[in-house]
Amino acid sequence: MLEKIREGSQGIFAKTILGLVILTFALAGVGSYLSSPAEVNVATVNGDKISKAEFDQAFQNERTRLQQQFGEMYATLAADPAYMNNFRSEVLERLIDERLQQQFATKLGLRVSDEQIRDAIRDMVEFQIDGQFNNDRYIALLRQSGYQPEQFRELMREQMSRNQLLIGVLGSDFATVNDMQQLMKLQQQSRDVEYARIAAANFAADVNLTQQMLEDYYTTHIAQYQTEQKVAVEYVELSAETLAKNITITEQQIQQFYNDNKALYSSKERRKVAHIMLESEEADAEVEAKAKQLLAQLQAGADFAKLAQTESADTFSAENGGELDWLALGDMDEDFETAAFALTAEEQLSPVVKTAYGYHIIKLIKLEAAQQQDLAEVSAEIAQRLQEDQAATEFYDAKQRLAEVSFEVYDSLEDAALAIDAKVVATPLFSRTNASAPLNAPVVMAKIFDADFIADKINSDVIELDKQHVIVVRVKQSEPARTQGLDEVKASVEAAVKAEQAASLAKAKGQELLANFKQSTDAEVSFAQFIAASNLTLEQAMGTPRFGGTLDGQIRAKAFAMAKPIDSQPAVDMVELANGDVALVSVVAVKDADITVVPNAEQLERLAEQNAQQSYAAVLASLRAQAEITRNLRATQTNDSSM
Prior knowledge:
Elements: H1 2-8, H2 12-28, E1 41-45, E2 48-51, H3 52-70, H4 73-78, H5 81-108, H6 114-123, E3 128-129, E4 132-133, H7 135-144, H8 149-170, H9 177-187, E5 190-198, H10 211-220, E6 230-239, H11 240-245, H12 251-260, E7 266-267, E8 270-279, H13 285-299, H14 304-311, H15 315-318, E9 327-328, H16 334-342, E10 353-355, E11 358-368, E12 371-372, H17 375-408, H18 414-419, E13 425-426, E14 430-431, H19 442-448, H20 451-456, E15 463-466, E16 469-479, H21 490-519, H22 527-533, E17 539-545, H23 553-561, E18 571-576, E19 582-591, H24 601-626, E20 629-631
Antiparallel strand pairs: 1-2, 1-20, 3-4, 5-17, 5-19, 6-13, 6-14, 6-16, 7-12, 8-9, 8-11, 10-11, 15-16, 18-19
Helix pairs in contact: 1-8, 2-8, 3-5, 5-8, 6-8, 10-21, 12-17
C-alpha cells in the first residue's frame, strides 16, 4: 500500500494539490510564526501543539480568500460576531485535521526525499522567470515571507508527505458496474407508505405553565433574546439618474445634436463577397495566368464555391465556398476593396486583382447600401443621451458642493441638502439585518455601524454607492446590543414553552401508541384498523419515490430509513416533525426498480470519486475519534477591526 501511495504522489494531480497547499504558505508569510517569541497555543493534538501564531496565519489566509471571493460584501460578513466566531472555529478545525493527517503520515512511514523537494520547488511557477526556475527570485520571496531556505524545505517535506496520504486514499478507491447498478436500484426504489399525524396543538390545553419552566427556558435559550445593535440615521442621497428626471430636452436641442452628429445615425455601404486567392507576394506571371484561367472557367459557368474549395490558398474561407464576412470601406487591403466596391450586381465577378497577398477573383454575393436614420427614429434616443450628459455634468457639480458643505457644517445635513436642492431623509432605529436601500450597501453599513463614527455623530465623507450615485450619512441615535429581560419577552417565552411542552406530550402519546401496536397480540389488527381505533386519520402515499414527491420530507426520510416489511407484516415506527407534531409511519411495501442499464465510464468515475471522499472523511473521523484533542478557543480571538 505504501508503494502505491508513493507512486500516486508523483502524478500531475498530486503536484497540483501540493502546489495549491504550498502556495498559501509560501507567499503569505507563514515563516513569521516560526520565529515568534511568545508561544500561545490554540490547540493540542495528541500532545502536538498548534500555536496561536500558526492559527493567525491560517486565519489571515482564509480571510484574504473570502475578501477576494465576496468583495465589498465581506465587510458585512466580517462585522457579524456570530459569523466570525464560527469562521474562527472552522479554521481551527482545519488545522487540527491537518495535524492529524501529518501524524498519521508519519506513523505510516511516508517520507519525501531531498530530490523530490528540490524538483517540487523548481516546478513552482512563483519561483520561475520566463518558465525557468530563478534562484534569486526564490531567495527574495523566501526573505519576503520570513523564511530561511532550510525552514521552507522542511515545510515542503511536511506538506508533501501529507499529500502522499491524501493521494493514496483518494487514488485507491474504485467502483464496479454492480456497485453503480445497486446504487441506481436504491435511488429509484419506491415505497408504499401509510401514516397518521398526532398534532401537538391538540395537547396545548393540557400544558400547565409555571414560572420555573419559563425561567429555565429563558436561561437555556437566552441567546435568542439578544437584540441587535441598532442605529437611526439621517442621509442625503445624490444620483445622476434622479437629476435626469428633472431635465427637459427641447426639440431644438434634439435637432441640433442630430445635425451635428449625423454620422452616428448612419451606416456605411457594405458588401458580402467571396474570393479565390492564389498566393504570391511578388508579381508572378505564371500565378497570374492561372488566376485568369480560373476566371475564364467561372465566366463559362463553373461553380465558384467548388473552385474556391479546391484552388483557393485562403483555406478558412475556402471551406465556406470562399465567402468572407461583411466588408465596409477600410476593412481590407486597398486594392482588394477597390475591386470589391466596383462590383454593382450580385453574382458579378471582378477581373483578376493583385494585392500584397496574391491574385484574387472576387464575386459579389450581396450588397447593402449606406443608410441614414431619420430624426424621428432616433429622437427619443437623442433626448435620453442629452438628458444623461446634462445630468452627469450637474451631478459632478452637485457632488462637489455636497462634499464641501457636509464637511464645513459637520454636525448637520440640512445645509448640505439645501446646497444641492435635496432633502434630508431620517430613519427610525434599524439593525444590520433589516437595513434597506441605500443604507444596506456594504460600504455604508461598515460606516454607520463603526463605533467611532457612532460616537462622533458627524457627517460622513461622500460615499460612492455606484457610478454617479453617492450618499452622505450621519448617525442620529444608536442603541447597543443587549439581552432582553424575561419580563420583556415573557409572551414569546410562554408561547415557546407551551409549544415545546405540547410537542413533548404529542411525542409521549406517539410512543405510547407505537408500543401498544407492537405489543398487540391480535395479529388480525392491521395498522389502518389500529389508527382508526386510536381516533387518528390514516393517510396513504403509495409509490412514494426516494427523492421528491408530495409526501412530507421528514416522513419520507423516515419511511426510507425503516426496514422492509417481513412476511407481509408492515414495518412501523415514529418520527418527530419540525413543527412539533408526531407521525406514526408504516411501510407497507418496497418496490425495487429493475436496472438493466450498463453505466458508462464517466458515471463509474464519479461514483469512485464519491467513494474516495467518503473514505477520506472516514479516515479523518477515525483519527479524530482516537485522538486526544484540547482546544483553547479563547486564544483564537483576534482584533478584527482591520478587516
